[in-house]
Specification:
Number of strands of chain A: 10
Shape of chain B: globular
CATH architecture of the largest domain in chain B: Orthogonal Bundle
Number of domains of chain B: 2
CATH topology of the largest domain in chain B: ABC transporter involved in vitamin B12 uptake, BtuC
CATH superfamily of one domain in chain A: P-loop containing nucleotide triphosphate hydrolases
Structural class of chain B: mainly alpha
Strand content of chain A: 15-25%
Order of helices and strands of chain A: EEEHEEHEHHHEHEHEEHH
Largest interface: A-B, 39 and 30 residues
Number of helices of chain B: 16
CATH class of one domain in chain A: Alpha Beta
Number of helices of chain A: 9
CATH class of the largest domain in chain B: Mainly Alpha
Oligomer: heterodimer
Structural class of chain A: alpha/beta
CATH topology of one domain in chain A: Rossmann fold
Order of helices and strands of chain B: HHHHHHEHHHHEHHHHHEEEH
Largest sheet of chain A: 6 strands, mixed
Strand order of the largest sheet of chain A: 6-7-8-3-9-10
Number of strands of chain B: 5
Radius of gyration of chain B: 25 Å
Distance between the termini of chain B: 18 Å
CATH architecture of one domain in chain A: 3-Layer(aba) Sandwich
Chain lengths: ~250, ~425
């Protein structure tokens, strides 16, 4: 199934905070084009792993490779420029800026105006076109002028996903995209992710098993800081170690 | 979709129209003002403009990027010294330097110091950022008197305005117009900055710096650039004061000046573009008027600052725009009693507090306290003589304060009910 080198590869990654080792020798590979789900019980270290991959902090030991280059220990901005975008579990939009402006900020580095003081951002044709495109992709076209802080929660989540997409990344990390949502809202967001992330590589942390099995074509299970199994949804369902450690209660 | 757009243009078009009219009228008023004003008032108006530009430049950092600088006197002062030096060079006559262009050197000095301080300060946020800016300003404050050549020692440096193109710059009026032209240009420039990519990014940094980093930005570099823009315009404001005052000494770097710009900004409304302009202009004007009447102006300004931060953190302009957005003007008639109650309450409150403060100050300052033959101690205040031992002397201001508090609270409560009802109606409508 794996052809060539994986897009993202973690080898024997460790992370300790003080005396506590949260990640203890995690191995993970994500291939180009797959929608990869990272599941595991609470406290397994999923968010820690995400933060490490995206550069919030580096691993204590081990290596992380993205598109063939080592990214462990690089800053978030460097990793983003290599083509990795992410969303946050706790909504991280810019509340004072309108929905459209949030996306203008997110796309403007690609147009080389990131620190310009010689034009009005709202008059930049390229930035506007791309921001509008993203806004419509997540169906927020009518909310263009609304400050992001005043959007309803589910629309802030949609904007959050659009921000992760804005830098046109080859790998997108989605941290619990449906957290705090009602069933209908979650279904809507899953559909949205399917559409906007078509032909992109996804790595998703998600608690909702329905969402995971609907959306992902490959799963990895993180338990106590280690990846205990990786495979297709059916393999994972059938895996006895996984059932014991995690899915057991759900399957019953 | 098309109806939504049509209605939004219907609502918006008059707003733009009116703000333009107000802007033009304000500029017109500022241009014609010196014809009506006495000399001293023209000088005060000049100081007001400089204070307004200073506060506006300071607030680039706070309003947009949420970085609170406690060391902006450094950039203001360095702008003043640079401009005074260049004025002295111009007076030498060896180089051709027209006076109206000299504030540019204040701007450049602010820029250079902004690069240095900004590089270090932006490594941290919040309290630590404030501490670093405070420390830099204090270092300059302490070292500058010892560097005679650059800062003129304890006595400071003086310079003269040199005539140019038929303008002598000898009168307050000419200085006023020079400062006005620069201030208006700088305010327009700062407003334009808020619309540029870096200016918009500054808002995003203030909202969520971490998110900015994960979008591929070097957040520290961006913060440093915003810092430099703020320091640059602050240096320009200093340059204008150098031209107006024709002298400067090291006390310009004092921490109280860094604090004053914070006070001006928050009283006017730190969350709005116009707030710092209104706050600085108002406080400078009151300061100038009150300086003749009382020595306690600093106390009153401090009290006002505390009250504003506690009860009206959005400031004068923030309050005005909030209320204008929520009130329905048709209902103004029914709100008028509450408005008047608040106004009367504030007047009573202020009168009571001022009386107590001035009375105590007079009592504790010997020349004003007089002992009469009968042994009573009395003070002349507000055109009457007040006996220290008389009950009415104390009862009157205390009643005034209490009555003022009650009236203000009652009125304010009714007004905020009206405001929230207005919000609900707008939300339903």
């Amino acid at each position: 199934m794996i052809a060539g080198e994986p897009l993202l590869e973690l080898r024997n990654v460790h992370k300790s905070f003080g005396q506590v080792e949260i990640i203890c020798g995690a191995n993970l590979s994500v291939c180009a084009g797959e929608r990869h789900g990272l599941i595991g019980p609470n406290g397994a270290g999923k968010s820690t792993l995400f933060n490490m991959i995206s550069g919030l902090f580096g691993p204590s030991r081990g290596e992380i490779k993205f598109t063939g280059t080592r990214i462990d220990g690089l800053t978030p901005e460097r990793i983003n420029r290599l083509g990795l975008g992410r969303s946050f579990q706790i909504t991280s939009v810019f509340p004072r800026l309108s929905a459209l402006e949030n996306l203008r900020i997110a796309v403007m580095p690609r147009f080389g105006v990131r620190s310009s003081v010689l034009c009005r951002l709202s008059r930049h044709k390229g930035v506007n076109a791309r921001a509008e495109e993203l806004l419509h992709a997540v169906r927020l076209g009518v909310r263009r002028e609304v400050p992001a802080g005043e959007l309803p929660y589910s629309e802030q989540r949609a904007l959050e996903i659009a921000l992760a997409l804005a830098s046109d990344p080859s790998l997108i990390l989605l941290d619990e995209p449906t957290s705090g949502m009602s069933r209908e809202e979650a279904v809507h967001v899953v559909e949205l992710i399917r559409q906007v992330a078509a032909e992109r590589t996804l790595l998703i942390v998600e608690h909702d098993m329905d969402v995971v099995f609907q959306l992902c074509d490959r799963l990895s299970v993180l338990v106590d800081g280690k990846v205990i199994a990786s495979g297709g949804p059916e393999d994972i369902r059938a895996n006895s170690a996984v059932r014991e450690a995690y899915l057991g209660s759900l399957a019953a | 979709m098309s109806t939504a757009m049509a209605s939004s243009t219907r609502i918006r078009a008059p707003t733009i129209h009116w703000s333009l009219v107000v802007l033009l009228l304000t500029v017109l008023a500022l241009v014609t003002l010196p014809t009506f004003l006495p000399h001293r008032a023209i000088a005060t108006a000049t100081q007001m403009q400089i204070a307004a530009l200073f506060a506006l430049a300071f607030n680039i950092l706070w309003r947009q990027t949420r970085l609170l600088s406690f060391g902006h006197a450094a950039f203001f002062g360095i702008g003043m010294f640079a401009t005074v030096h260049i004025m002295r060079t111009a007076a030498g006559g060896t180089v051709f330097l027209p006076l109206p262009l000299l504030p540019i050197f204040g701007l450049m000095a602010g820029l250079v110091l902004g690069v240095i301080v900004g590089f270090f300060a932006t490594a941290r946020t919040g309290t630590y950022f404030a501490m670093i800016t405070l420390a830099f300003a204090e270092i300059i404050h302490q070292l500058s008197p010892q560097w005679q050549g650059a800062f003129g020692g304890e006595s400071g440096l003086s310079a003269m305005r040199i005539a140019w193109a038929g303008l002598s710059f000898g009168s307050d009026k000419e200085v006023y117009y020079l400062v006005l032209a620069w201030s208006l240009a700088a305010i327009a420039g700062i407003h334009y900055f808020t619309l540029t990519p870096l200016g918009r990014l500054a808002f995003a940094l203030g909202d969520n710096e971490q998110r900015v980093r994960f979008l591929g930005y070097n957040a520290r570099l961006a913060k440093t650039l915003v810092f430099i823009v703020s320091a640059m315009f602050t240096g320009l404001a200093g340059g204008l004061l150098a031209i107006a005052n024709e002298n400067v000494d090291h006390t310009i770097f004092r921490a109280s000046l860094s604090g004053q710009v914070v006070v001006h900004t928050f009283i006017g409304g730190a969350g709005t573009f116009l707030g710092p302009i209104v706050g600085a202009a108002a406080m400078t004007m009151f300061g100038s008027l009150a300086a003749d009447l009382t020595r306690l102006w600093v106390l009153y300004q401090g009290l006002l600052f505390i009250v504003m931060v506690m009860y009206l953190p959005q400031g004068i302009v923030g309050l005005a725009t909030d209320r204008a957005a929520h009130w329905r003007w048709r209902e103004l008639g029914s709100l008028l009693p509450s408005l008047l109650a608040v106004l009367a309450g504030i007047i009573l409150l202020v009168a009571g507090i001022v009386f107590i403060a001035e009375f105590l100050a007079a009592l504790t300052t010997n020349p004003f306290a007089r002992r009469t033959d009968s042994g009573a101690v009395s003070v002349a205040l507000f055109g009457a003589t007040w006996d220290r031992a008389a009950l009415t002397t104390w009862l009157l201001p205390v009643c005034s304060v209490a009555g003022g508090l009650i009236l203000t609270r009652l009125g304010a409560r009714r007004l905020s009910h009206a405001a929230s009802a207005g919000v609900q109606q707008t939300a339903h409508g």
